[in-house]
Amino acid sequence: MEKFLPILQIIVSVFLIICILFQQRGTALGSAFGGEGGFYATRRGIQKKILWATYFLGAAFVILALLNLVF
């Protein structure tokens, strides 16, 4: 258990970094050329799945960090 938790936390942190890097920033390039759409947009499809994966992995990382403190 002592070696399992840190390794699992490293794996979760790598996937968390990947999910954060896959998220889009702001709006798409089309808005730079006069496209419609406001600053706020709803997330759909894969963007929504990446967002939920980021939430899940962030929570898993915090839980694993707390478990590492206890054990």
From TrEMBL:
GO molecular function annotations of the record: protein-transporting ATPase activity
Main location per the UniProt record: membrane
TM region(s), chain numbering: 6-22, 50-70
Keywords: Cell membrane, Membrane, Protein transport, Translocation, Transmembrane, Transmembrane helix, Transport
Membrane topology: Multi-pass membrane protein
Protein name: Protein-export membrane protein SecG
GO cellular component, one term: plasma membrane
One Pfam family, short name: SecG
Subcellular location: Cell membrane; Membrane
Coiled-coil segments: none
Family: Belongs to the SecG family.
Stated role: Involved in protein export. Participates in an early event of protein translocation.
Taxonomic classification: Bacteria, Candidatus Nealsoniibacteriota
A biological-process GO annotation: protein secretion
Domain of life: Bacteria
